[in-house]
Model the fold of this input.
Amino acid sequence: MTTTEIPLRYTKEEYIQPPHGFCVGCSIPIALRWFLKVTGEKVILLMPPGCASPSVLFPKPSLIHQGKRIKMVATPFGSAAIFAGGVKSALVARGDTETQVVAWAGDGATLDIGLAAVSAAAERNEGIIYVCYDNEAYQNTGNQRSSATPWGVRTTTNPLPKPKMEYKKDIMSIIIAHRIPYAATLSTAYPDDFMRKVQNAKRSSGFRFLHILTPCVTGWQFPLELGVKISRLAVQTKVFPLFEAEGDAITITKEPKGLPVEEYIRVQGRYRHLTKEQVDMIQNEVDKRWNQLQYLVRYGSK
Done:
């Protein structure tokens, strides 16, 4: 039985309770909610600075189950993976092999400041789940560019007339190159696919990596109610393909419609300055990367 054939199991329990400190319309609490519905309360979350760590603590702790707080540890910016590996080793030494140890970190703490720690933990095949919630900039401190920020986007550190002219770092290719047991991309627009991948990661062992696109209302500049729609458009335009990698096998888990990239771009204010020629350049890059993914699906990642 393949992982896609295993029945999806998740609890009806809720583990994130209002009031929390996330912005209205933020995708991160949705992702955290569904993630915890699969892992359950036997979990320890290691959170570096970012949007998530202060938002689950203020205005009051919001990771609660039946009156008890879900275990959460605040880590230094670049050390979530290292802390998580240490916690996992300590639990195993105590005979606890059931508790899931999870590093829950943003793109800045993963693709930039914490990349060396992530790579080291992946190379050692630490028995943790590493989750990168990706809002494509340092959004908690006011939308500064990160290496996850796409080409052509304006940020506070790339104001007009000079938006970011470097392409987004391909973190999934970097992680898959470590030959870890399991890696996947997830979207809050597809809850069944999302939770099934968390379940697959939970069932696996060693280092597991989950990459979640989490649109940011303030940084991406879109109406509060459009977060899920934008997540769906990212998948359907092939900007953020949904796939999983198990060993050398890569599988696309949600076939996109192939909508024009313009449909994804035009609902976000951070792209509003782009010319038609620049939009076409983004379309060409998306098409190229989709073809590369198709090649890997066919021939594997070796």
